[in-house]
Amino acid sequence: VAVFVGKVYEDCINGAGVKMIEFSAQQTIAKTVSEEVIAESKKRFGIIEAEILHSVGQVKTGESCFFVKVCGQHRKESFAALSYIVDAVKSRCPIFGKEILAEGGYKWKENTYE
Asked: What's the rounded Cα separation, in Å, for the pair 98 and 105?
């Protein structure tokens, strides 16, 4: 079993600290895309099962917001599928993050793949 837990980072944007992210989503489409990504991962990596959970609403810095669990027969395939799923969800699912700044204001989150 391989697990990824994404947290809200206390990023700094133009000198202003992020205090939380307010997530919104087109939930029906996000669910369909997530199911497609899991099906692709089963075929591509031979995993047994996977689960994807993502927060909607306000999540404070330091709190978890994104969870992926992959079950496979071997760690190599599980880890490869885990990485693939995380990147696919970030790039394909209509989930949006509004970074709320401690000093007031906000900035829409841009996903990066580091």
From this structure: 10
**Entry field: residues in the chain:** 114
From residue 23, give the alpha-carbon distance in Å to each of 90, 91, 102: 13, 15, 17
Query: In this structure, what token pair is assigned to residue 23?
Result: 């997530």
Strand partners, 5: 67
The CA angle 17-100-85, to the nearest 5 degrees, is: 95
- Going by the DSSP 8-state scheme, the letter that residue 103 receives in this structure is T
The answer to whether 9 and 61 are in contact (CB under 8 A) is: yes
What is the mean predicted confidence (pLDDT) over 52-80? Answer: 97
Distance CA 9, CA 50 (A): 25
Question: Nearest Cα to 24, choosing from 88, 94, 100, 107?
Answer: 94
Distance (Å) of CA 5 to CA 83, 92, 94, 104: 12, 18, 19, 28
pLDDT tens digits along 15-52: 889 999 999 999 999 999 999 999 999 999 999 999 99
